[in-house]
Amino acid sequence: MTWVHGDWIEDEAGGWAFVPYVRQLFERAGWQPLARPAPSASGDAMAYATLLLNEFGGLTVGKSGAGVDCAANNLEFLQAPRPVAAHWVRRWPRLRTAVMLGRAHDTYIDVLVDANGDFLLVTEIDERLYDFGNDFVRVAEILLRGLAWPRPVDVRACRQGDARAA
After folding, report:
1. Which pLDDT value is given to residue 165?
2. Phi and psi torsions of 163, nearest 5°
3. Who has greater pLDDT, 71 or 29?
């Protein structure tokens, strides 16, 4: 599917402002917006992830793998949040307050959300942590459209307490 230029679409039911291309991907995956405002983080990663997965849980958005123009632009949502893998928490103590809500790019990336509502992505291949901020729509757009990522979080800074430093 090619990306279609267009204005942002405000979804009156779910509160998500996806660009048309990303919205089409979600709709093709079977997304049904919930008739309530978009969830917001309240200091509880598990509760926030659960609210997100109430709307997106179980969806596989986008496609990847053989025969898909070598693309790996997909986002697979879990049915329910899971604890972050222990080895990631040891490497980045900040992840103690995070939970996993999905996988991306042909399962090579763990998609997490922390107690602040920040979306954190861990890449399995090079074992790096990326802080995407707290905008779910932006995270989906970056992953599904192949846009530029933020710089990875510096492991040393994270261990010293400044998890946002790069």
Report:
1. 40
2. -70, -20
3. 29
Residue 2 forms part of a structural domain: no
1 found inside a domain: no
Q: Is residue 106 domain-resident?
A: yes
Yes or no: say if 163 and 122 are a contact pair by the CB < 8 Å rule: no
User: With the C-alpha atoms ordered 71, 145, 112, 48, is the resulting torsion angle positive or negative?
Assistant: negative
Domain residue limits at 54: 9-159
Closest CA to 129 of 162, 91, 82, 161: 91
Single out the residue of 109, 96, 18 nearest to residue 56, CA to CA.
Answer: 18
Residue 153 to residues 85, 120, 158, Cα–Cα distance (Å): 18, 10, 7
Contact 76, 101 (CB under 8 A): no
Domain count, the chain: 1
Q: Distance between CA atoms of 38 and 30, rounded to whole angstroms?
A: 18
DSSP state of 138: H
Among the listed residues 85, 118, 87, 116, the one whose alpha carbon sits nearest the alpha carbon of residue 100: 85
Q: pTM for this one?
A: 0.82
Q: How buried is residue 21: exposed, middle or buried, by Cβ count under 10 Å (0-12/13-18/19+)?
A: middle
In a domain, 164, yes or no: no
